[in-house]
Design goal:
Number of domains: 3
Strand content: 15-25%
Number of strands: 23
CATH architecture of the largest domain: 3-Layer(aba) Sandwich
Helix content: 25-40%
CATH topology of the largest domain: UDP-N-acetylmuramoyl-L-alanine:D-glutamate ligase
Radius of gyration: 24 Å
């Protein structure tokens, strides 16, 4: 494998000093996932990773990026010593961005960043060498880490950029220097740090501050804040491409058909008909995919190949992953599990409930004659002073009428639980752990079960418990937020 960083190049990028000569083929911040040949970056977060440098070198790290020499290591150990590790990681990211000729796409938005990033990866990898962020590495260390890992010969790079307080996106966008800035949508999320969605829109629009000259902004057409986003694009000197249902959008969504296995989409592209599908149900996937196809056009890619590759995409785990859980292998009795336990805000909650409502349970296969749609919903966090009203508003969503039972987790979700009619009201608990002993009572063969909540609510524990009720079938289908 060719070297990603040499000791000489890394020292030049960071201004650090190295007492040894080394070559790294990757960059890691975690000894648990570190691969031999990686440069280990000793960041200080909840723990000081300097405590793990010896372990990283024992596991085969080529070198470690440190601000001090850890105990137990000689001075000639393969270390790159810098004043500040995070600043040095940013410098590596900046140098990696400067040495590549890749076309860079920056992705942000209140909902759908990771799924859109993965759609872009799927489309671009059929037409060149693609580098994209792992998981949801989109914060003050995730963006520079993604850039530092980028091979110089990449044709495309997809950089996800997130935030949870004002002033985060601009510096990260200027580090990434995208040629294309894509905003998925603006919705109520992280309202603890913002007055309203206009404030969120202003922060998301800061991604355009980093656009390269002649850059392109791909923006949602159907929002109250669309004029704000378009105005910021004009200030940045960017060309704007709008997507959505608005007649003014050159990438216009005309019709969406949800089937149990896919989303079939009719759209227009500059007035010309466009037909594509996504291999999982969800209206939000149709919209995100349209933005991806706009990006493919902006990059001059083959639109037919791009539309076909969208049809092969399946979403990341934990963001709507669908699994068939066998309860009785002899009788082939099973229920379907939708794992959406990674994140939650009002917009993504609505999308997940619509997905559940569009799916069809199976009757006459379980103890209960009718298959049911069941939701297990955890708190949506970081919504600020309106959080209780936003949780209560879920009770008014049209999709709830087709959901048989709703179990709730967390103090905020109690407001929803109390607003539900008694026929739909399942269990409520302060924490997910309190429901683990009862989860086997929640489901029956033929049911479809959605688990959705903010990551720190740990409703993923209930996903794991539901999986343990049976054995996932080989024909697992995946979907996402």
């Amino acid at each position: 494998m060719p070297a990603l960083w040499t000791s000489e190049d890394a020292a030049a990028a960071t201004g650090g000093r190295s007492a040894a000569v080394w070559q790294a083929t990757g960059v890691s911040i975690d000894t648990r996932s570190l691969q031999p040949g990686d440069l280990f970056v000793a960041l200080k977060d909840q723990r000081d990773a300097h405590d793990f440098v010896v372990q990283a070198l024992e596991k085969g790290a080529a070198a470690a990026l440190v601000s001090r020499i850890p105990e137990g290591l000689p001075e000639d150990a393969p270390l790159l010593v810098v004043p500040d590790v995070l600043q040095a990681l940013e410098a590596l990211g900046r140098a990696a961005r400067a040495r590549t000729g890749a076309k860079v796409i920056g992705v942000t938005g209140s909902v759908g960043k990771t799924s859109t990033k993965e759609m872009l990866r799927a489309v671009l990898q059929g037409q060149g060498r693609v580098h994209a962020a792992e998981a949801s590495y989109n914060n003050h260390w995730g963006v520079p880490l993604t850039l530092a890992r980028m091979p110089a010969d990449s044709d495309f790079a997809v950089i996800e950029i997130g935030m949870n307080h004002p002033g985060e996106i601009g510096p990260l966008a200027r580090l990434a220097r995208p040629h294309i800035a894509l905003i998925t949508t603006i919705a109520a999320a992280h309202l603890e740090a913002f007055e309203d969605t206009s404030g969120i829109a202003e922060e998301k629009a800061a991604i355009m501050d980093g656009l390269e000259p002649g850059g392109i902004a791909i923006l949602p057409a159907d929002l109250d804040v669309t004029p704000l986003l378009v105005g910021r694009a004009e200030q940045a000197g960017a060309r704007t491409l709008l997507f959505g249902t608005s007649a003014a959008a050159p990438y216009r969504l005309i019709g969406v058909q949800l089937t149990p296995e896919a989303t079939i989409v009719r759209a227009t592209r500059a007035g010309e008909p466009l037909l594509y599908k996504v291999r999982t149900p969800g209206r939000h996937f149709a919209t995100n995919a349209l933005a991806v196809l706009a990006a493919a056009d902006a990059l001059g890619l083959d639109p037919i190949i791009a539309a076909c590759d969208i049809g092969q995409w399946s979403p990341p785990a934990g963001r709507g992953t669908r699994e068939r859980i066998l309860i009785d292998a002899v009788e082939d009795d099973a229920f379907e599990l939708i794992d959406d336990a990674f994140n939650a805000n009002p917009a993504s909650m609505a999308a997940s409930l619509e997905l559940l409502a569009a799916m069809q349970p199976t009757d006459n296969v379980g103890r209960i004659s009718s298959g049911r749609r069941i939701a297990i919903l955890g708190d949506m966090l970081e919504l600020g002073r309106t959080e209780l009203a936003l949780h209560r508003a879920i009770a008014d969503h049209p999709a709830l009428s087709s959901i048989a039972v709703i179990h709730c987790v967390g103090p905020r979700m109690r407001v929803l639980w109390e607003a539900l009619p008694k026929r739909q009201r399942g269990d409520w608990a302060e924490t997910a752990a309190e429901l683990l002993g009862r989860v086997h009572l929640f489901v029956d063969a033929g049911d479809i079960v959605l688990v959705k909540g903010s990551k720190s609510m740990k409703v993923s524990l209930l996903v794991d418990a539901l999986r343990k009720l049976g054995k996932a079938s080989p024909s697992t289908i995946r979907g996402d937020e």
